Amino acid sequence: DEEQGQGQGQGQGPKERARPRRRQRPSPRRMRTRGAEEAPQPKAKAKAKGLGIKAQVMKDFDTDRNIDEVVDEARNSVSEIEASIVVAESEEKKLSKEVEEAKKALQQTSARVDEATNKETVALEKLKAAHAARAQAAEATQQAREQRTETAKTLKILELEVQGRAKLVELEEAKKAAQEASEAAKKAMEDAKLKEKEMAQAMKDAFKVQGVQASLAIKDAADEDAKGKEEAKEKKASDKQAEKAVIAELGELEKARLARERERQQRLREAAGMKGRGRGRGFGQAAPKRLMDASPEMEATPSKAAKVREDID
């Protein structure tokens, strides 16, 4: 295009020569929007709101539902949550692979100067979208783990409730047998009363043991929850450190690209100066003017790099 413009400009003034058309680059906002639309958006399950775990369990037992059905439902919920965790981790690995592919694509775009500008911009946007999608996948994984902890806590309380109810049924049957024996044999009235007192004490002890076991189960679940939060905090700090490293790497790539562009402009200026000295005064002044017209694009490049870094932050 530049040689064709030079041929048309011979014999004409600097103002009458045709200027080469500039390529329109896609705006970063449009590329960011396109990348966000193409990136998969993992869906995070909403946390259950309302009653507490123990209150919800007791509410389920107040209904006419079978206790085995409630336990099976809780176990199925745990299985579904574990399956969702596996899917989320697989999605996170897939997104990590896309990040690596985006880095390779970014390195390969420096082969040709004119095409490298557009390709590097697209690669940067894809890299940002991949990082954002991976962060969302990690957040969905963490939410699934928290949901699994809550469900495991509910299942433990259900199991303790089943055991307590079984013991309660046995004690009720023993109490009923003692009452029937007292009615059938008046002579053994004192023995029946003593046995009834023993059954009442056994029931009291059973309820006390059940309360202790439930407290221990809740404490263990709380410790496991605190451990999960600590692991999530450490993982968040690690992800933040990795993000800072990526930002630094993008800055280095942008600096390298600007250096290459300045070097190319310097070569064009030198070449234009040599051609101007060989072909006459009018033609020698036109080439630097084209370089001056092209300079705003180059000056705008650092601001675009800064905008890319702000978007990543």
TrEMBL record:
Keywords linked to the UniProt accession: Coiled coil
Recorded coiled-coil stretches: 71-205
Disordered as annotated region, ranges: 1-52, 221-242, 254-313
Listed Gly residues bias regions: 1-12
Biased composition (Low complexity): 38-52
Bias-annotated ranges (Basic residues): 18-33
Bias type Basic and acidic residues, positions: 254-272
Protein's name in the database: Uncharacterized protein
Protein species of origin: Alexandrium monilatum
